[in-house]
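Methods: example folding runs. The two proteins below were folded one after another, and each record is reproduced exactly as written to the output file, sequence line first and structure-token line second.
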Amino acid sequence: MIPYFEAPTLDLGGLTIHIFGVLFLLAVAVGPTVGVVAAWRTKTPVWPIAALMTLVICVSLPLSHVVYVLLYQPERLASDGPIVLLQLTQGLSSTGFVVSLLPMAVLLALVTGRRAWAVLDSMALGLGAAWTVGRLGCFVVHDHPGTETSFFLGVRGICRDGWGDTTRACHDLGLYELIASAAFVILATKLIRSRSVGWAALMLLLGYAPLRFGLDFLRPEASGLLGLSAMQWLCVPMLMLGLIGVGLRLTFPPEEDGHPA
């Protein structure tokens, strides 16, 4: 099992720099960079990727924090006031992020017409890279402890009801998503380089939806409607959208498919 560790901080004489904040900013920088480079290498329009990443920063990140506060920490809103809604590094909800991100990505890609699949691939790779760095931040601060486990990737001392008790270990859901997103980035890069157009974006939907659906059963928080969390309910239309996308991709293959870059 993974031993307990605390996230490092850097004290600069009254200014304390937390590793999560550094990785959060790094994720914001890495995502657009990787997406734009992927578009440039495949001669795909760059402006939709740049527009999406701008919208992610201006819309998705603030909305994901608002949803996080409302779903998981409503008492903070009551005690500290609306200012907590502006503290973006104090918790982000995947539910709010995905709800805003998916329609924006699809609409921006459709504007490009025949290059829509290639644009979606570049977007997916950029988002996957950003997600990897972001989940690294979640892991180093143990932001998403799960239920108790004897699994070899369990982390000692992070259980919610026994923080610091190294005789017990719990799932670290941030670590699991870190591993999955890093694997996605590797596979998506290979697909894009081989010009298997559209499959990287579809793999993101078809891979993340069932993964997240299963991981949420390992959360110690109380379940929602019919025993499922808000994100689990969102995984259902995500999976359906991915399956519809597979059908469209097979029925109407893009012209550039199969021609390596």
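Second run, written to the same file directly after the first:
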Amino acid sequence: MAGYSCIGLDIGSNLIKLVQLKRVRGRVSLYRCAAAPMPKGTMQGGVISDPEALAGALARLRLAQPWHWNRVILAPAPRHLILRRLSLPPFTSREMGRAIRWEAEKLLPMPLDQAVYDYALIEKRALRETTACDYLVAALPRAVVDSYTAVVSRAGFYPEAIEPAPFALQRSLLFGVAPPEEPGAVLVINLGAAGTDLLIAARGRYRFYRYLNFGTSHLSLAAAPGLAGEAAPKSDEASSNPALTGDSLQKAAAALARQINRSLEYYAYETDYPEVNCRAAFLCGGGAAIPGLEELLGRELGLATRRLNPLGKLQSCRRATLPVAKAEPECTMNVDAEGPLFCLALGLALRGWRI
């Protein structure tokens, strides 16, 4: 009997992406995959400014294909996400809930009644004669969570869960890349329109996350500072922008690498994990479609860098043609070329599945 995942829903700055998976006898296949442009002016600074327009776009995506069901896992805008790591002694589950709440009251920059928070065990570590349990506490303003769930529900979906981007990206990494046997951490760079998610993972486990306010819309400005007074190009323009070639692309890659290197230096200074330095990097998101960026970014970072495309690993079923829901006639996308766009949505769809 076939099993179907929840729909992974990635509401980006320029694109809405959805992925649903199917599993038969332990084999995972791509059941549905769709994308549509975000209505203009729908998101402002990571806040939903036009809920009716966004709900309408989501409803059209829902009706464009026969999804198996309407339950979705979605990721909030990362700029509102608050992550804190805690190292605590072993507790019972009941004691742990109380301890986390006590720590959350001290760590979070808002009252708990104005936040939605949860926690997850990252790792248990032996420290001298005791054991330390590392937890990651994630929190969002309640108003942000309510705005997302209201829009999704209005579109006819059921919000099963809201999950931080780093956990979904970590799942995509594990699914798309065989778990490494050699020591060392890896870096995932999810380069979107308005910003970039940076995730460091080691041995399949979370190590560090940071969101950069630097995305594909900033690359042209970094390549040509004289454009600073003009409107920034949109992410779907960045990959085809003729200015982003040769020297201009190298300048853009160098600007992005400087932002990333600052985060890597901070991680190396602050971490108490043994994996201090990254040994490889994986590029995904809309920026992965920019020709030559992968190689130049790897050179600037001093890391072997390649595109992360977990969709390429999936056995696609007959109906998974990656239709783009638009007002125009349906078109299809190439999985190899467009797959990196769906890393976050795929990781969300994999929630709760063994990989």
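Comment on the second run: The radius of gyration is 20 Å.
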